[in-house]
Amino acid sequence: xxxxxxxxxxxxxxxxxxxxxxxxDVTFVARGRHLDxxxxxxxxxxxxxxxxxxxxxxxxxxxxxxxxxxxxxxGVKLWDTEEAARAALPVIGDRTTVVSFQNGVDxxxxxxxxxxxxHVIGGVGYIAAAIEQPGVIRHTGTMQRLIFxxxxxxxxxxxxxxxxxxxxxxxxxxxSPDIRRAIWEKFVFLVGLSATTSLLRSPIGAIRANERTxxxxxxxxxxxxxxxxxxxxxxxxxFADDRxxxxxxxxxxxxxxxxxxxxxxxxxxxxxxxxxVVRLGGRLGIPTPANRFVTDALALHVDGRTSA
Length: 308
Prior knowledge:
CATH class of the largest domain: Alpha Beta
CATH topology of the largest domain: Rossmann fold
Radius of gyration: 19 Å
């Protein structure tokens, strides 16, 4: 299978490396020092699950160099979605599948507006991975899971073919008949994790152990559930409460990528996380005071250090 990875960060580089090691033709789109290191030294993945060193990497800053591909995997930050979609247009043929494993709940719609809905499937990625240094990816823990499926529900030959490729590469994969629900299930948790670890500058272990901050985390997730349910997503009313059991099983030192970006002075995905809960809640008539507080409290940091 011929695959283009748009965004060779933690998620894209890790799963791209697994697919490349399994024999698939994978091209990584990167830039700057990371691209230079990939070309010079190859791609190294530090992982307890699947460490790897791919010495010769197809890496470029020009997606069109890959030619027409079978799958475009979108792994860029949310604010780069439209730019990445436009850049990928030259490699999209009649049968090309475009799948986003970004955070948030509207990536598929934003991609569809540029590449065409017929090419897009929805996706969810679960992994704690990041660029440790140019050309090097650090995978923390053992979680490495991809879920994807047709936006309108059900399975299809293209979804099953990509799932087969991922499974053959040792990836924990699920072809989902209800990807919209799967996207929202992750979104609810991610909104809570990103909001609390960033707002409180603390890992999840301390947050869940304190009665008041635990209650804040739960309220943030409950608001996201109510917004999703109002929008027609099949989440049970108690989903946020049930999700706390998952939170309690996480490594105590786990933080969100938003927290990491905040610490580094980078731009934040906040407008597509708690900000999206507030925005969608406003449209649907659902109050979201906890998420509004988060967006207000972190507003000075949304654009990175330049906005402080």
